[in-house]
Write a structure and sequence with these properties.
Blueprint lengths: L1 E2 L2 E2 L2 H18 L5 H27 L7 H14 L9 H24 L8 H11 L8 E10 L6 H16 L4 H8 L8 E6 L5 H7 L11 E3 L2 E11 L6 H31 L2 E2 L3
Antiparallel strand pairs: 1-2, 1-7, 3-4, 3-6, 5-6
């Protein structure tokens, strides 16, 4: 395929199609196989065309990307891929650097396209809140702390059980939970405080105990896959819909991002209308 005279390998389309196919399968598992293949092929082709057009438009800006900005991103890449850092051939390092430079050019282009997109008004945010507030429901959550003695290859179960029983005895003597947690737990610090969390964030065995525990009370010893625990519930929040004031910032960001995406989509439609796309012979 040629896009404005630039050759694009069919392999890029095939790779993109594999990703699109997986996404569509997850979204619409019952889609007819033939319909899926046709949709995948067209979507992948259009995505590659859009990506190429963005790159072409980004190259039109003659202002170079500062070397320090590129190097900062290269360092981030190396930090995220330590198994590859320093082990690639110079040509590969240059390929990575060029890819990062192109990403930064595209970011600059998109920033320019969206620069004049205004932030949503209070009226728009309020309208979205009232339209979608049922989907904003915050589930029941609790703030709990725990003391744990791990069972692992270094600590057999009988040893961990004996240790947690000694800890339980300290609590029964009236020593504050937070002090015992910091001095004796295998996860010390902050008095064992885990912060707020909903059901499902912790393992089932932990949820089964703490979500039935009254605020301010301390649990008996219980077992999870990690080891033996004693827990204390500090606070409980019932399931509820957040107020407009609580949801305002996230809703404003969501609306603004949608407006920016719309601006980029319109921009790409205009660029696409001017583009010359030809299939390879």
């Amino acid at each position: 395929m040629h896009i404005n005279g630039e050759f694009v390998e069919d392999e890029l389309v095939r790779l993109e199609a594999a990703q699109v196919k997986q996404h569509l399968r997850e979204r619409e598992p019952d889609m007819d196989s033939l319909a899926l293949e046709l949709q995948v092929r067209e979507l992948a082709r259009e995505r590659i065309i859009e990506q190429t057009l963005l790159q072409q438009e980004a190259r039109r800006d003659p202002t170079p990307i500062p070397d320090e900005a590129i190097e900062a991103e290269v360092r981030k890449y190396d930090a995220q891929n330590p198994q590859q850092a320093g082990c690639l051939l110079p040509r590969d390092r240059e390929t990575i650097r060029a890819s990062i430079e192109m990403d930064l050019r595209i970011e600059r282009l998109i920033a320019s396209v969206t620069a004049k997109v205004p932030k949503p008004t209070s009226k728009q945010v309020a309208a979205l809140y009232h339209h979608s507030k049922q989907s904003l429901v915050r589930p029941e959550s609790i703030r709990a702390a725990h003391i744990v003695k791990n069972v692992d290859e270094l600590t057999p179960e009988i040893e961990a059980r004996s240790a947690i029983e000694r800890i339980e005895a300290l609590l029964k003597q009236g020593i504050p939970f937070e002090q015992v947690a910091d001095e004796h737990s295998d996860c010390p610090g902050r008095g064992g405080d885990l912060g707020f969390f909903p059901r499902g964030q912790m393992v089932e065995e932990f949820d089964a105990i703490v979500f039935d525990l009254p605020v301010g009370t301390i649990s008996p010893i219980f077992r999870t896959p990690f080891g033996f625990h004693i827990a204390k519930v500090h606070e409980r929040r019932a399931q509820r819909i957040p107020t407009l004031a609580e949801a305002r910032a996230s809703l404003e960001d969501a609306l603004w991002e949608q407006e920016k995406e719309d601006a980029v989509r319109i921009y790409l439609q205009e660029v696409r209308a001017r583009a010359v796309v030809r299939k390879s012979k």
